[in-house]
Amino acid sequence: MKNVLCFTDVTLTYHTTRGETTAAEGLSFEVGEGEFLAVIGPSGCGKTTLLSLAAGLLAPSSGEVTRAGRCGYMLQKDELFPWRTIEKNIFLPLEIRREKEKNARSGAVELAKKYGLGDFLQSYPAELSGGMRQRAALIRTLAADPDILLLDEPFSALDYQTRLNVCEDVSKILRGEHKTALLITHDISEAISLADRVLVLTARPAKVAYSHTLDFGDVVSPLKRREMPQFSGWFELLWRELNA
User: Fold this and answer.
1) So what's the pLDDT on residue 84?
2) What is the distance between the alpha carbons of residues 244 and 240, in angstroms, rounded to a whole number?
3) What pLDDT, on the 0 to 100 scale, is given for residue 174?
4) Which residues of the chain, if any, have pLDDT below 70?
5) Which value, in Å, is the radius of gyration of the alpha carbons in the chain?
6) How many domains is the chain built from?
């Protein structure tokens, strides 16, 4: 498996008027092509900082971050523009990149239709449920055809039942489109149900404490994984490691 994102001995130190804070130290891991990697860690350990490094929004103080291709970034909230239709929201990354070709736009529309938004393209965000808005946000991110999806706790603003449904949607879409994904989450169950592999970070300064490849075989449905006997075992193990 080819690696599309690599962190090699990455350290990041913030400098402020009150001194300096080391957010990550000696952080090393990789994400393989087509892999779904989830990252969990204690509150305040720098999980979102890790995504900023992955996206190239921050440069490491030392070490190296390498990526093979473009990154797409999905935020905690859908951040859809309320004055634009769903179709025009989905076209936004193409407009930013000044891609006016009909093929790019028709591809984005086909993606929306494929994943249940075809009847809502002329609707406005306020007319959609939270789950459907989050699905639209994911389609918008995919419209630019990124090689790596960076997911920053994308379900945290949703109620529990909606989160379960949207997790199922996201898994289906990302695996159906054969995308590489890096998910940051504070939810252990979410990480287990979605990912191929889970990294556990230490408290700040963040480094990788544990890496686990999950053993669900060909089962990729988050809801079905939650029903499997090994799910509780993984939860107990990750809970202990996270709170060690």
Assistant:
1) 95
2) 6
3) 86
4) 1, 98-103
5) 18
6) 2
Tell me, yes or no, whether 155 and 238 share the same domain.
yes
- Here the tokens at position 67 are 């990526």
Residue 77: predicted pLDDT: 78
Q: Specify whether the CB–CB gap between 137 and 38 falls below 8 A.
A: no
CATH number at residue 8: 3.40.50.300
Tokens of 157: 């603003």
For 151-168, the DSSP string reads EESTTTTS-HHHHHHHHH
Q: Are 135 and 116 in contact (CB under 8 A)?
A: yes
Q: Are 122 and 45 in contact (CB under 8 A)?
A: no
Amino acid at 151: L
Residues near 155 by Cβ (< 8 Å), separated by ≥ 6? Answer: 134, 163, 166, 167, 170, 185, 187, 190
Domain for residue 75, yes or no? no
